[in-house]
Every structure is written in structure tokens, then in C-alpha cells.
Amino acid sequence: MQWSCLTSGCYAVVNIGERYIYLYKIFLELVMKRLIPIAVAVLFALPLTGAVFAKEGAKSTTTKTKAVEEKPTTKPDGKTTRKNIKNYGGYAQIAADMTPEQLAKLESLIDEKKAAIAEFDTKHASRKTEIEKSIAETTDKAERAAKQKELSILKQQRASLDKDYKDKIEAILTPEQKAKWAGLGIYSGMTRTFNAAKLTDAQKDEIKKKCLEAGAQFNAADAKQQEEIKKGIRASIESDVLTAEQRELLKKEAEIAAAKRAAAHTAPKTAKTEIKQEAAQTKKEAKAAEKAAEKAAKNSEKEKSE
């Protein structure tokens, strides 16, 4: 509040000063033109005009300050909302369910996280560039391995910093909010996994529902159990949500990815061309399967609506 008052005062002083200078210039021009009576009137009007400007300036800056310090508003259903809800990043989907106190803590932690990550990146930017350059240029396997290990350590440190703030943010959530957040995280991963299947909006909604239902169970599980939960959701999506055409499309995409990995890492140079040609043919078949999957999904939705 003290800072806001000081800022308001500065704005008011600047505004008054600028207007005094403007009026004083008019006064000098009138004197130069020998319009003495009018110049004297302007001179006597300066104090009164300054007081009016000061009042207007204070009013204007107070309005600006209020806009900056705007608090969360409450909707009729009791939930809070903010104009800058999108600034919560990945937490935007649960921010709408938070109390004003939670939102204040969330904003503070997000700001702290951004500052900490920016500081880390700035501190290690030059070293990271040097390491990446050395990895690209060196022909010594041992040296490359050492540099890659050093780069991996930097990435782990950054990831650890990110996780620290993730844990702090999750600590302010209620059990229900944590379950929803976990479900949304699973859903995000599933949409990436099945992105090649060209999911319809209805299918995405069905997948989201499955993921949200698993949120509480996922939070209570250990790492191994969590992988089993996600594996079960993937299997359920493949059998209950996807069409036969979409499953075939995913199979083709997996074959393309496998062929590319083989060409890049395991095949002799003479065989790489053949594998790439095979991958291109598989990709062509995948395109045809993709069109068939899209058509089947639309037909399926049409039949459900009817």
C-alpha cells in the first residue's frame, strides 16, 4: 500500500509539473507579444490551475492503482475467477476451483518459480552452450561421454528445481483438487499418446473422464503402481474408445517409428536406404489408414447422435 501511495504521488507530481511548464510557456509568449494584461491573468491563474490538476492527477492515479491491485472476484456459485486466469499456465484448469487465498499463494509460487528458472538458465547458459558445442565438435568418445554426463547433470538440476516448485504448489491443494490435477496430468499424456489417431471431441471427452476418475487412485499409488494405472487406461482407451480404423492407424505409426529408429541406430549403412524406403511405403499406407479412421469416427458419431 505504501508503495502504491508513493507511486500515485510521483504520477501526480509529474503531471502537475508538465502542465505548469505548458502554462508558463504560454505566459512567456504573451509577454513577448506585449499582451501584458492577459499574461498577468495567466500568471495569477497558475496556483489555482495547479490545484485542479493535482486533484485530477491524484484521482487518475488512484484509479490506475485500484486496477493494478484488483482482487479476485466471486461468482454467484461461490467460485473465484480472475481476468488473468490464463497466466496460471498448466494450473489454469484447477485455478477456477480455488479460493482467493489459494490463488494468491499460487500466483506467488508461479512468480517465484519463473524467477528461479530464469536465474538458473542465465547462470548456466554460457556453460551449457560450451558443452553442447564440444559434444558436436569432438571426435573423442570418452570426451563426448564426459560432456554428455555434465550436460545431463545440468538438466537434472533444472528438472529438480522445477519439481520443487511443483511440490510446493501441490501442497496448497485440497485432496479433491490434487485428484483433479493428477487426472488432468494423465489426460495430457494420453492425448499425446493417441494424437496420431485423430481423436474426435467426443472421444477426447470420454478419455478425459476416464483419466479424472483415476486421479485419486493415482495419487495414492507408488511409482510402479502409477505406471500400471496408466497402462490400464491406455488399454481401456484402445478397446473402448478407439475405432478399428484408428487402432490400425496407430499400428502403422508405430511401424514407421520403429523403422526410423532402426535406420538411425542399428542398421548398416547399406541397409539404411532400404529401411527408409520401407518406412516411406508404410507411411503411405498410414495416410490411407488415417483417412479411413477419420471417416469411421465421423460415421460412429453420426450413428450415436441418431
Give the topology, please:
Blueprint: H1 2-32, H2 36-68, E1 73-74, E2 80-81, H3 92-95, H4 100-137, H5 141-170, H6 175-193, H7 201-213, H8 215-220, H9 223-240, H10 244-266, H11 269-305
Antiparallel strand pairs: 1-2
Helix pairs in contact: 1-2, 4-5, 6-7, 10-11
How does this model look, in words?
With 306 residues, this protein is mostly helical. 82% of the residues lie in helices and 1% in strands. It has 11 helices and 2 strands, in the order ααββααααααααα. It has a two-stranded antiparallel ribbon. A hairpin with a 5-residue loop joins β1 and β2 (80-81). The longest helix has 38 residues, at 100-137. The protein is extended, with a radius of gyration of 32 Å. The model is unreliable at 1-16 and 52-83 (pLDDT under 50).
